[in-house]
Amino acid sequence: MSLLPDILQRYGDDLLDGFWITIQLVFLSVALGAVVGAFVCAGRMSKRAPLRWLATFYMALFRGTPLLAQLFLIYYGAGQFSGFWRDVGLWGILREPFNCALITFTLNTAAYQAEVFRGAIQAIPSGQWEGAAALGLRRRVTFLRVIAPQAALYALRPFGNELILMIKGSAVASVVTVYDLLGETRLAYSDTFRFDVYFYAAALYLILVETLRRVWNVLERRLTRHLDPKSRPRISGEDALD
């Protein structure tokens, strides 16, 4: 006799399948968003005005509008131009709800990550650049060998915060028929009208977030173990993981 509640016996495997889809969607979008965000950050800090304006507009657009609205625009907007996407060979990608959600989440988190990267780089004292220049190092080498490793410590905590926010925000994918954790939960509820199925879904989200929070705390302590606790990088918003 199983000790699991009857609703978990019936829908437990479906919830776990949706949980795996959520993990894939979030971690893929955050990883791709880091790449896009690095380019946006470079444009935002560029001395060329057109690149700086374009990056600023991109960040304002995706940080200033709801994630759900962005998802609708990409999911339903792609369908309006299906003929064009067929001509360029991309309709096979854009017709899938998961891919539309992945593109939306990637573009959204890239805007936030770009600001995280920019803040971390600007937190490095200008004397680091000047000292490297005095040694004859090129700016590219200075950035890769001197600035970036230090900036990574400043970016670590807010990057973890962004990852957690994306986990919770990913629930909107269910409205475009992505069968993630919330999508499977809604199906189970529509079959049974048992509201407690949402409790089990919330428990899975909580387990994922709490596990990530603890892993991030361990990672931060390990990477900053050589620093005096009073001199460790501290920037606004970090308490979300504490």
> Roughly how much helix do the residues carry, as a percent range?
over 70%
SSE sequence, one letter per element = HHHHHHHHHH
The CATH class is identified as Mainly Alpha
What is the beta-strand fraction? Answer: under 5%
CATH topology tier name: MetI-like fold
Q: Count the helices. How many?
A: 10
Note poorly predicted spans: 235-240
Radius of gyration, taken over Cα atoms and rounded to an integer in Å: 21 Å
Number of domains: 1
Number of DSSP E strands: 0
Distance between the termini: 40 Å
Which whole number gives the mean pLDDT? Answer: 88
- The rough form would be described as flat
Characteristics:
242 residues, mainly alpha, MetI-like fold, 76% helix, disordered C terminus
Present the secondary structure layout.
Elements: H1 6-44, H2 49-64, H3 67-80, H4 82-87, H5 91-94, H6 97-122, H7 126-134, H8 139-169, H9 181-192, H10 196-223
Helix pairs in contact: 1-2, 1-6, 1-8, 1-9, 1-10, 2-6, 3-6, 6-8, 7-8, 8-10
Can I get a quick summary?
With 242 residues, this protein is mainly alpha-helical. 76% of the residues lie in helices and 0% in strands. It has helices at residues 6-44, 49-64, 67-80, 82-87, 91-94, 97-122, 126-134, 139-169, 181-192, 196-223.
